[in-house]
Amino acid sequence: MKTTAPPVLGLRHNLAQFILLVAVNALVGGTLGQERTVLPLLATREFHLDLYTSALTYILAFGVSKAAMNYFAGTLSDRLGRKPVLVAGWLVAIPVPLMLIVGPQWGWIVAANVLLGISQGLTWSTTVVMKMDLVGPRQRGLAMGFNEAAGYLGVAVTALATGWIAAQYGLRPGPFLLGAAYIALGLGLSVLTVRETHHHARLEAAQHVSARATAHGGLTTGEVFRLTSFTDRSLSSVSQAGMVNNLNDGLAWGLFPVLFASAGLSLGQIGVLAAVYPAVWGAGQLVTGAASDRYGRKWLIAGGMVVQAVALGMVAAGHGFGIWLAAAVLLGAGTAMVYPTLLAAIGDVAHPAWRARSVGIYRLWRDGGFAVGALLSGVLADLYGLPTAIAAVAVLTALSGVVVAVRMRGTDHAAA
Description:
This protein is mostly helical. It has one domain: Growth Hormone, Chain: A (Up-down Bundle). The protein has 18 helices and no strands. The longest helix is centred in the N-terminal third of the chain and has 30 residues, at 106-135. 59% of the residues are buried. One of its GO terms (molecular function) is transmembrane transporter activity. It is a multi-pass membrane protein. The chain crosses the membrane at residues 12-32, 52-73, 85-102, 108-129, 150-170, 176-194, 299-317, 323-343, 387-406. It is found in: Cell membrane. Its main location: membrane.
């Protein structure tokens, strides 16, 4: 009778599954990237939406549905296991490319983004938790760096590719056929080759020695929500920074292509700018995730928010491809400092018994930033113009960095 080998924590012992999950998350990011260049232009050129607030409804729908599903993904993965939640996320994504291709009214596009948000909440959240499960506490920042690098390099490559496809063949259907291929491949890999990792989390929980975290090992979901959102200084600081980070990412997704097009940039140039920001963001996380393991989380997060604010100010004040390219590089660098570090900081503080729920709650707040960003930037752009909207978000981003500097405790991989 064949016996299953007991789980072992660590990157080296779980390298094959870790690399597989990195590849799966690249496909998750690519599924999102099919929209980054094309959809803002589709709103204005094919659906003739004049108000920025109306055009950004798809980001609002995406942000609300993804944020809500992030919350449930953590709870479901604790109850049902990680793999079923991952597979369910891919199944939800299947209709999305078809709806984007054939949708005759803007409501179809909004509905497709509700499904895309649900899918991204399930798939991306689960790949985060599964990598945390596999590597254990010592290499958590490195693991999150690889996870988020894969996802956002997937976004970047696909944004660049869809910009080229749209320039050659039109805004529909070509760019979204690439997204359909990603979904088919991601579903196949998840069903056939990904293995369950929940038992790794149970092993880490059994080995957990932090007195503070062990005392809170049996928390209810409501108690975890309060800790993550409000009462724990580190967890709540991370949650607000994540929300503001994705607020400005929603602004970049929805309004940057429109700003660039209004300045006379070509579709190819817009595609490059839409790709450079997530490309630098993605690649940079390979360095910043590991650096946060070595040097701590707090000042990478606070500094990254300030760098993002400077980049947004450059976009608001600048004009032309050169200055906007420099700003996109800087915005990507600042986001790379923040993104994997926030996730690793959650893993530092949260007990393994409720870590998946805490990650889900953090991602609820973080991806709620898409919805807040769509509303705030859309209203400000309609009232005062695009540069003012971008400048206002730059100020908000800088203030978020100050909150982290003042409120968050210093953490590293040992400070659970």
